[in-house]
Amino acid sequence: MPDTLTIIDNRTGQQYEVPIAHATYPEYGSYIRAADLKKVKSSPTDFGLLSYDPAFMNTASCRSSVTFIDGDRGILRYRGYPIEELAAKSNFLEVAYLLLWGELPTQTQLDEWTHWVKMHTMVHENIKKFIDGFHHDAHPMGMLVSAMAALSTFYPESKNVLDPAVRKQQIYRLIAKIPTVSAYAYRHSQGLPYVYPDNDLNYVGNFLNMMFKMTEVKYTPDPVLERALNVLFILHADHEQNCSANAMRSVGSSQADPYVSLASAASALYGPLHGGANEMVLRMLRQIGSKDKVADYMKRVKAGEFKLMGFGHRVYKNYDPRAKILKEMAMQVFEVTGKNPLLDMALELERIALEDDYFVSRKLYPNVDFYSGLIYQAMKFPVDMFPVLFAIPRTAGWLAQWQELLEDGEQKIARPRQIYTGEDTRSYVAMQKRAEAATRTEATPALM
Ligand code: ACO
């Protein structure tokens, strides 16, 4: 049987044969090239058939070997390794290496990678002055996005994105510096002095140090909390072609440097429908107030008044595998920190949702954001910092996607097509005539 698709254009009676290609394994999907539709024309001057796919519901924008998701079966793998195994056995820097370079590192490779990341943990002193310029109650995500873009000005050579050695240098810098900039944003919002990196600590321990060190000479992270944050970072490190990865690729496709590209990816992450959702989950739980009010709140969700934050996913139509890991981990964290008082409400919300036909029929399950916020809060991270805690590990994924894009000979500057729905051609109308026309037709309020 040929691997082709036959298209018959009923307007012309013409028949076209389009090749069907496959992903690595047949069950990972088959596809046609949208450009093959261009030859389907109603007349020789016709542009050719376009596929219309708002929000990329069924359009692949790239071929990628970084992350695999099977949303129906609740599967997530980085470079083929199941997320559950990585969360149980690995640590964030090792996973970042895996995402970026395709294989788990040998001990020598890991030592070298860790060394180079540690060599770049400090940021230029001017970044502190830059952050000082923000208002005391500036959202840390706004500060992070701006400071990451500002880093571009310190490393003008980073524009040379087609040079693999230059790219590698920026990857070290970005992975190393984003925890420092994030912690500075937090310290600024608290009116606390900035804490310099402590390279005796590991990646996650050092981040906790820069966040929470007070007057002690040396900060010692709690091992359970350090491990929990390591797991959270692993779970958030990549998620294939989501909104922010798409922003990273789209901006990166213009060969913008990785600092400004990453700032746009982080901006995409900030939205409440994406990485801002963990913050919204906490705000929602606080708004509900108590366990006995959960059922009532759910009625309002079902009536379409608002969405249940931390539920639903564009790809997962099953329990998000990351949420499963986090639910278990939350209990371990609460043994150290004491139970988060919002937990009972969250469990009640989940219980009702998993039994309710509205959620079951729409395949709405808890996503990664549902439990991560409860854990972050128990670890004393303020709610505003939640999207920042997402952006730090996701930097590894964004950079892996960016690198793959630049090495992909098929990629060009991202430039979607549109279906034009506006006016047909018309002639310029002189101001005098426009006024006359306006008295005849009702002017729109926005123009008055
Ligand atoms: N609460 C209530 N109803 C929901 C929810 C929700 N959280 N999510 C989807 N629905 C409903 C929609 O209203 C729609 O119902 P309808 O068919 O009656 O109109 C149906 O389920 C399908 O939803 P869509 O909006 O079409 O799904 P989409 O794939 O576009 O959206 C999204 C996915 C944005 C994540 C959505 O589920 C949502 O807004 N969830 C809440 C925000 C959230 O938790 N975001 C984090 C996502 S994970 C991440 O980015 C890390």
Question: What would you say about this model in short?
Answer:
The protein has 448 residues and is mostly helical. The chain contains 18 helices and seven strands.
List keywords for this structure.
single chain, 448 residues, mainly alpha, two-stranded antiparallel sheet, 6% strand, binds acetyl coenzyme *A
Question: Could you please describe the fold and organization of this structure?
Answer:
The chain is mainly α and 448 residues long. It has 18 helices and seven strands. It has helices spanning 83-89, 92-101, 107-118, 125-132, 140-151, 164-190, 203-212, 223-235, 243-252, 258-270, 277-288, 294-302, 321-337, 343-355, 357-361, 368-378, 386-407, 431-440, and strands at residues 4-9, 14-19, 21-22, 30-31, 67-70, 75-78, 81-82. The chain has a three-stranded antiparallel sheet with strand order 5-6-7. The chain has a two-stranded antiparallel sheet with strand order 1-2. The radius of gyration is 25 Å and the shape is globular. The termini are far apart. 39% of the residues are buried.
Give the uncertain stretches in residue-range form. none
What is the first-to-last residue Cα distance? Answer: 64 Å
Order of helices and strands: EEEEEEEHHHHHHHHHHHHHHHHHH
Question: Into which percentage range does the β-strand content fall?
Answer: 5-15%
* Gyration radius from CA atoms, angstroms: 25 Å
Largest sheet: 3 strands, antiparallel
Q: What gross morphology would you assign? A: globular
Q: How much helix is in the residues? A: 40-55%
Count of individual helical segments: 18
Calculate the mean pLDDT score and round it.
94
Strand order of the largest sheet: 5-6-7
Ligands in the model, by name, code or SMILES, are:
acetyl coenzyme *A
Class by helix and strand content? mainly alpha
Number of strands: 7
